[in-house]
Amino acid sequence: MEIWINPACSKCRSALTLLNAEGADYTVRRYLEDVPSPDEIRQVLDRLGLEPWDITRTREAVAKELGLKEWARDEGSRERWIEALSAHPELIQRPIITAEDGTAVVGRSEEAVRDALSR
After folding, report:
1. pLDDT of amino acid 100
2. Interstrand relation of 2-5 and 104-106 (parallel, antiparallel or unpaired)
3. Residue 103 burial by Cβ neighbours in a 10 Å radius (0-12, 13-18, 19+)
4. What is the reported pLDDT for 92?
5. Comparing C-alpha atoms, which of 38, 91, 49, 96 is closest to residue 68?
6. Helix (H, G, I), strand (E, B) or coil at 113
7. What is the C-alpha R_g of the chain?
8. What percent of the chain has a predicted confidence (pLDDT) above 90?
9. Are 117 and 24 in contact (CB under 8 A)?
10. Rounded distance, CA 39 to CA 31, Å?
């Protein structure tokens, strides 16, 4: 199991606290420092069953600078979104937990983190 975190994020810290309390075996990835490549983002999206715009933090300053709210959300625009997430990792929703069964969850709630632990 791997968890993508921003240490400054309270949801990330809560997820880590729960993983530790449950004795989970996991690896931490500080994705703002160890930036995911476009291929890694594609893999995580496949595991999540989501599109890049589904995991984009559209209220971040850089999202406003890029005008993300106006970007098309269709198959033809998918790569543009993925490239933006890799170029600006602060846009990636957090924490993302990759589960042992090959799936992933956005662990913003205790229920989502427990879901990842159960897989």
Report:
1. 85
2. unpaired
3. middle
4. 98
5. 91
6. helix
7. 14
8. 97
9. yes
10. 14
Bridge partners, residue 56, by sequence: 92
In tens, the pLDDT along 24-78 reads: 999 999 999 999 999 999 999 999 999 999 999 999 999 999 999 999 999 999 9
Residue 42: C-alpha distances to residues 13, 25, 38, 80 (Å):
25, 24, 6, 12
Q: Are 4 and 55 in contact (CB under 8 A)?
A: no
Determine contact, residues 113/83, Cβ cutoff 8 Å.
no
Non-local CB neighbours of 50 within 8 Å, separated by 6+ positions: none
Mean pLDDT within 78-101: 96
Residue 67 burial class via C-beta count within 10 angstroms: exposed 0-12, middle 13-18, buried 19 and up = exposed
Q: Is the pLDDT of residue 119 over 90?
A: no
Give the global pTM. Answer: 0.93
Beta bridge partners of 105: 97
Pairing of strands 27-30, 2-5: parallel
Partnered with residue 106 across adjacent β-strands are 96
